[in-house]
Recover the amino acids of this structure.
């Protein structure tokens, strides 16, 4: 039996799923820490999944770097990290199940086509896919596929719920049909889309809680719907407010937001960074250095700030200064 499992209650399983397309910034690490603490506070297992489906942007060296960053913070996982790039056959099998239900259809629209349709006079209200190929006759679609026309596969959302319950945000209302439209599950380049692979891996890995940033709140509804279509149980979703930079912008890999090495170069070791992140989660005071076991004991989702957290160099400096004799 796993050392973190309790025989008195069902096993809780949390996870963190980074994409190796850039170094982890403080916002990423804060989410990873929160997800880890939430799982361990329930005596649960914790998994790491590498979301490397984007072959053009994923880098093997970043996988090594990201795992090292998690270890430096004291985050441990209970089995070998799962890599999505090696699970194509699994995704394909479940995708075929969906095709047989008639819930997915081929779409021959490029991004430019979709934008043109949305900007055309008398275009339907909304800002998502307008359903151009949704009712294309099957014979026509098959003919186009046979002649090699580039296409993706979309999931129909007309029957999708208009809301779902989030463990942090509460009842979240979002009309997929009006706001996003039928969304892509299999891309035109042959790779499965994030919404499909992520949802499926959570279910197949037995994940019971997905704790991540609020920027993915609408993805929670999409992924819960994907799992409902596959008749698979969804996890409990908890989307916490993001950490923003001092310019009130969102921390971002693409923008090169500072990573653990940058803070180490500035004199902040991993313990100082972890303690600062714990402080932004409402778990410790400035200058306090709780051990990971203490943070697990203190974890309470209700202590997490309800608003976005602004990164403070001054507050981080207080954690660094507290290490001086």
């Amino acid at each position: 039996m796993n050392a973190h499992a309790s025989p008195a209650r069902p096993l809780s399983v949390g996870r963190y799923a980074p994409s190796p397309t850039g170094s982890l910034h403080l916002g990423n690490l804060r989410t990873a820490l929160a997800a880890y603490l939430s799982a361990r506070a329930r005596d649960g297992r914790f998994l790491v999944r590498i979301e490397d489906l984007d072959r053009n942007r994923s880098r093997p060296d970043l996988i090594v770097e990201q795992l090292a960053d998690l270890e430096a913070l004291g985050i441990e996982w209970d089995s070998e990290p799962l890599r999505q790039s090696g699970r194509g056959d699994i995704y394909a099998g479940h995708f075929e199940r969906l095709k047989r239900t008639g819930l997915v259809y081929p779409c021959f629209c490029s991004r430019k086509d979709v934008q043109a349709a949305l900007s055309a006079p008398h275009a339907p209200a909304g800002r998502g896919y307008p359903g151009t190929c949704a009712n294309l006759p099957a014979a026509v679609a098959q003919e186009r596929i046979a002649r090699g026309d580039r296409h993706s596969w979309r999931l129909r959302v007309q029957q999708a719920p208009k809301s779902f319950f989030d463990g942090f945000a509460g009842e979240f209302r979002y009309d997929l049909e009006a706001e996003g439209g039928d969304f892509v599950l299999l891309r035109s380049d042959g790779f499965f889309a994030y919404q499909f692979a992520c949802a499926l891996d959570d279910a197949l890995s037995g994940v019971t809680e997905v704790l991540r940033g609020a920027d993915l709140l609408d993805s929670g509804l999409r992924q819960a719907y994907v799992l409902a279509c596959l008749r698979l149980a969804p996890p409990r979703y908890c989307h916490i407010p993001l950490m923003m930079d001092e310019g009130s912008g969102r921390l971002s890999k693409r923008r090169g937001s500072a990573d653990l090495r940058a803070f180490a170069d500035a004199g902040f070791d991993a313990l100082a960074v972890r303690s600062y992140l714990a402080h932004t989660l409402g778990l410790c005071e400035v200058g306090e250095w709780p051990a990971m076991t203490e943070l697990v004991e203190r974890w309470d989702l209700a202590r997490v700030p309800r608003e976005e957290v602004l990164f403070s160099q001054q507050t981080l400096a207080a954690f660094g200064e507290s290490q001086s004799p």
About this structure: The two ends are 42 Å apart (CA to CA). Residues 1-8 have pLDDT under 50 and may be disordered. The longest strand covers residues 45-50. Residues 185 and 194 are 8 Å apart (CA to CA).
